[in-house]
Every structure is written in C-alpha cells, then in structure tokens.
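Provenance

Sequences were taken from public entries as deposited. Structures were produced by running a predictor on each sequence independently, with no templates supplied. The record for Regulatory protein MerR from Streptomyces violaceusniger is shown for reference.
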Amino acid sequence: MGSGNDGLTPIRDVADHFGLPLSTLHYWERRELVAPTRRAGQRWYDTEQLYRVALIKQWRTTGLIGVEHIAEMLGDGPGRREAVPELIAECERRRAELDEALDYLNRLHACR
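Predicted structure for Regulatory protein MerR:
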C-alpha cells in the first residue's frame, strides 16, 4: 500500500488495498469508526487507522457484527463490556450451526 514519507496512506490506496468502495470508508468515518487525517481536503490514514479498517472489514465480512456493535467495541464506553460477551455467544451459536451444516454436507457427499 502506498504511503507518503509521513507514514500516511491516501484513501484511494486504502480502498484499493482492502477492496472497499470509497463510500464505505466515508460511511465508517461518519459513524466515527475511523478518523482519517485531512490534508488539502483529502483523507489520509495512519497505521492505527489502517488497523481499524482491517478489523472493521473482518467483522463486517462475517455479516454478524453490525456497525452499532462495532462502534461499541471500538469505543471506551460501558457498551463494550456488554457487547463483547453477547457477540461471543452469537459467534459460538453460528459456528455450531455451520458445523452441523458441514457435517450434513460431508455425509451427503459420501453417500452414493
């Protein structure tokens, strides 16, 4: 990913690297999930913000964690203490469902 001498990466490079539309990064900024630096009207991302983008993308890719929960988990408020255990339980429930589906498909595949 291209970055300037100051360690900042332009928004276009961030979007391309993570396979995200620019509108997604703009939306995440409006929701205060990321806070890029502004220079001459353009958004630039430092290393911390790049890590946040990677984390948010991973969470969103699962389809399990909504933007509201992500904001709670990235924030310092009391919502994090409640959101994380709930999401762990939901992930475990989903994993069990996927394991059952996979077992069924493997049995189906083995049948003649």
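The CA atoms of residues 22 and 66 lie 19 Å apart.
DSSP finds five helices and three strands in the chain.
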